[in-house]
User: Fold this.
Amino acid sequence: MGISEIKQPVYDLHCHSTASDGLLSPFELIDEADARGVLYLALTDHDTLGGLEAARAAVSDKALSLINGVELTCTWQRHCIHVLGLGFDADSSCFKPYLARLDALRLERAERIARKLEQKRLPNLLQEALAIAAGGQIGRPHFAAALINAGIVETAQEAFERFLGRNKAGDVKVDWPNIEEAVSVVKAAGGLSAIAHPTKYNLTFTKIRQLCDDFKSMGGDGLEISYPGVIPDHTRELQRIASQRGLLVSGGSDFHSNNNRWSALGRFPPLPIGEGHLLHALNVIL
Assistant:
């Protein structure tokens, strides 16, 4: 059967908790997913597996099946790209040095963001941003929250428009690992990898095709083609790209917060499961 011929169960293969830049704890996230009828959930925090143990404990009395996940930050041709890792062994030793490197890069970036914002005559927000991250992977959303707490902006959107978005003071470039390293570490841990939200990198479709060619040649497995904000024509083109290259397809909400109604858990354009779907390849019980 093709992917359009099998009814879609409720799943979500892309979401975030307080272990990175989400607003719900892993426990709260699992409760929310269960309440929304999600049956298969991958917790894919940015560059950390820190929320998986708590999430695993939280599903013990739920009908929900948890899939180990992560969203790794990497580079391809100087573009910052995100790669989803799914279904891997979370105890694999290969993750430890890789994630420690990412953790150090994120902290270094946070320090540079704080200095850049100070140069704009803002207060030093590093400690406030770290406190908001509360031990999770620090990112620009934590600085957005710090700017709100300081009364400098009213919303996260304003924070990004004025200080943190593309080409703004807080848009600090980082020498992330290359995409081949991200694919390799997921594969070494026994997982499958997929390019996350490919239309969100300011790439032309010609570039996206090149990215997918390289990704496939490196041993990458899939392409996320259904997510909030993607338009139907783009989904169809992404599905064509995946099919031509033998890549599995995937879908997810990229959930961070209940404040964003368009990215509720389990909410993204329908993408039925079949043999060409990444969830099917993970051999979960469907």
